[in-house]
Amino acid sequence: MFTLAVEDGSLTSTNPAFDAWTGSDPGSGGGFMTSYVHPGDVALFISNLHQAMLGQMPSPFELRMRASGESFQISELSLLPESRDGRLVQILGFVRDVRERRSIIRDLRAARDAAEAGSRAKTEFLANMSHEIRTPLNAIVAVGGLLCDMRLDEQAQSFAEIIRTSSKTLLELINSVLDFSKIESEKLELESQPFAIGECVTSAVELVSSQASEKALTISTEIDASCPPAIFGDVTRVRQILANLLSNAVKFTEVGSIVVRASSRSVPPDATDEAEVEVFFEVRDSGIGIPAEKQAKIFDVFSQADASTTRRFGGTGLGLTISRRLTELMGGSISVESEPGQGSTFRFSIRGRPARLSQMPDAALQLDTELATKMPMRILVAEDHPTNQIVARLLLERMGYEPDVVDNGRQAVDAVAAAIDSGNPYDVVLMDVHMPVLDGLAATREILERWEHERPKIAAVTASTLKGDRERCLAAGVDEFLGKPIFADELEAMLKLMGGYRDAAAAAGPQSEPSKGVDDGTEDEVPVIDASFLDNLVLLGDDQAHDLTDSYLSSARETLSRLEAAADQEDRTTIGSASHRLKGASGIFGARRLEAICERLERASEDRNREQLLTDVAELRREFESVETQLLERLKTA
After folding, report:
1. Where do the domains of the chain lie, and which CATH numbers do they carry?
2. What digits encode the pLDDT tens for the residues 8-26?
3. For every residue of 571-584, which 3-state class applies, written as one string?
């Protein structure tokens, strides 16, 4: 310890013993500051000393100091200012030799690194061994199954069943250990492919359906309207988590039911401007429940709520740990709510980018041509654009329906009224949002106000991507939300959902927000024609696809002429409506760049002068010519 007296802004050492230890001149403040501090640390020392002279207490800091007759050594210095009557009178200094502490810290870090290296080595060994064990075990499971299918006497059949059951149980254990070891060694790689949320839930339920049937348990699924039909992610791992939670629910439930529910919420775009959704899954059972004091432990490694659980129900305690790690790797979390005797509810979440069902690599280009027979409905299409009318009508006709078509919201309301008065009301209305005379949302509100019970279900159909469009549609009272361009599989799934038709295809759930136009890279990186969109037209047949293309090109040329005249006259109202009209039709053919230019023109027309408007429309004309060339070439080769 040392003391520095403060007098008229100068410092004086008042501790001869410390002066002797440092080798500084007694009583000389200047000598004190320079004689024992390493030249490279003088600035650091003076900075902290200045802070202390201002009456502030700096944090302890390390610097190199010299003891008498010794070389410089690392020390920790603390400065404590003392005041009397509001005036600083002295600064107390405390010096600590930290060489031993630093040595201990180095040893601890080395021990930690060695322990982590050893842990990684053990985990990698466990992963390798699990893999090697699983290979012959798969053969045992397969042979056991073959034996069970052979004609054996009663005793041999019993032995074969024991082999098959025991080997399957052992294989499940090895798979859990392998998954856990991969996660621990950071060798687990997640895939990112589009998958249907509803189908994922359905397939997970199917994995445990036989066990549930044996106990007379019912399993129901609920796909909330907030869920997109598909997201990018690792469907295998999501299904694994669901299957594990469902398996536990069946295992620990003797009487009652199990419910699986999925919902989602939008996540604000990050720095990469990629919009995401957070999907929430919930598995609720009416089983034995978990005591509150045990709930915090069940996600720990090799842990179960009660040791007796292992003896009674089996299991390693790894399933929930693996589920927790997987959800964390997928940007989510997992939790439980439970009460003994009242059942348990497990919830987990994941994050992913929304996807269209048509983006799925194995999406089948086929429609249920007998859907109208299985699920009779009267359908009204309210759409002002001829091309979109044709697409909707043809797709519905391929499913066996005979839809009525109107051009605007007022006609839609009148058609609904006439149908109700005739005693043959519509079941579903596909309501375009942007229409002349009366827009789709205004028409929806009027229908809801006039008919409370007899009204049809309404699906908002729009290509608009402005912030809040989906929320505005739902607030108007629509039942579902369908994006443009209309894809066959999404239309079919939505109709099944609205009509209450339940099967694996309908489990895809409600629709996502509409296509975002150009959402991957810049416009220059996007092809003139996105071929995946054209696949949707294959369902219409060659002749219909040719007619539809001719109709689109003819209508687009006319719209472009109107846009050029409107730009020359600075008619921004016409520019907004015409560019929106062209955007909606162009999306059907996958003209992504043209669609994006239309949307930009639609949004920015109010802020552009005549010269800028003419430039924008000229760019639109050039892009359309590229689209026209590619579409005509495709028609020649089709």
Report:
1. 2-97 (3.30.450.20), 102-184 (1.10.287.130), 193-355 (3.30.565.10), 366-508 (3.40.50.2300), 523-637 (1.20.120.160)
2. 666 666 655 444 444 444 4
3. CHHHHHHHHHHHHH
